[in-house]
Amino acid sequence: xxxxxxxxxxxxxxxxIPWLALAEVGVQQFELAHQDPVTTWVLRCSPxxxxxxxxxxxxxxxxxxxxxxxxxxSDYPVGSFLRGPxxxxxxxxxxxxxxxxxxxxxxxxxxxxLRLQASAVAWxxxxxxxxxxxxxxxxxxEELSLLRWQPGSSYEPHRHADWExxxxxxxVLQDEHGxxxxxxxxRYPPGSEHHPWSDLGCTIWLRTAAxxxxxxxxxxxxxxxxSRNLITPLSxxxxxxxxxxxxxxxxxxxxxxxxxxxxxxxxxxxLTVQNGSTR
Length: 279
Known about the structure:
Radius of gyration: 18 Å
Strand content: over 45%
CATH topology of the largest domain: Jelly Rolls
CATH superfamily of the largest domain: Jelly Rolls
Shape: globular
Helix content: under 10%
Distance between the termini: 9 Å
CATH architecture of the largest domain: Sandwich
Number of domains: 2
C-alpha cells in the first residue's frame, strides 16, 4: 500500500511511512499534518528509549497505539491518552517499545494535565445506533474522542464543516471512497462529504471541530453529541436507525499490528488505496 494519497481526503498508511530519526536515540517520527496551531506526529520508540517533550513550548496530547509508554514512573498501555503542557510530561520513555500518536498545540489551553486509560472508562452512547464513544478532550476549538462501531453499524451521510481526522485503531472502517484497515490515518477537508460504515466493526480515534462553548471535562461529562452540532446531514433528516438490527461482538483489545494481521487474514488481497478507491 502506498503511504500517501491526496485528493478529496488525505490517507496515510502508518505501516508504509518513511520514518525520520530524532536526536533522541531510538526515537523516530513522521509528521502527519500541520495546520496552525496544531502539528500531528506519529512516533516510534525503541525499547529502552527516552522521549524529551519538554523542549516544545506547546500542549502535548499522546495516544498510545502500540506497546506501552512510561511517564513519571507510571506505565500507560495501548489506548491510554495523556494531555497537558509539554513541561508536565516528564520522564517519558518505553521499556518494551511503543508507537504513539502525538499532537502538539501551540499556545494550548492551560487545563489540568489529563491521564486516561480507555480500558478503565465506560463507553457511552454514541451519536448513532451501534456507535459508542469515550470523550478524550473538548475545547472551544475541537473535540477528541474514541468511537467504537458495532458490526454492521452506519453513520448518516454528512458534510464536514471543518477538518475531520480519523485513525483506525482496530477493525475496518469503510465509506464510498474506500476501505480502511488498522493503522490508516485519514483527514477530510472542510466541505468534503462521505457516508461511513463498518461491516466488521471497528474502533477509531476521531478529531472534529467543536461549536463555540466553554471547555468541559472529558473524564466526568458525557459527549455532547458533537456530530449533531457539527455535521450537516445531506438528507436534512434527523438521526435514525440504519442497516437494521446489529449483532453483538465482544471488543478485542489489540494493538494496531495484531489487528492488521487479523484484517489481512480476512482480505482476499492486500489493501491498496489509490485515487479514492480500493485495490
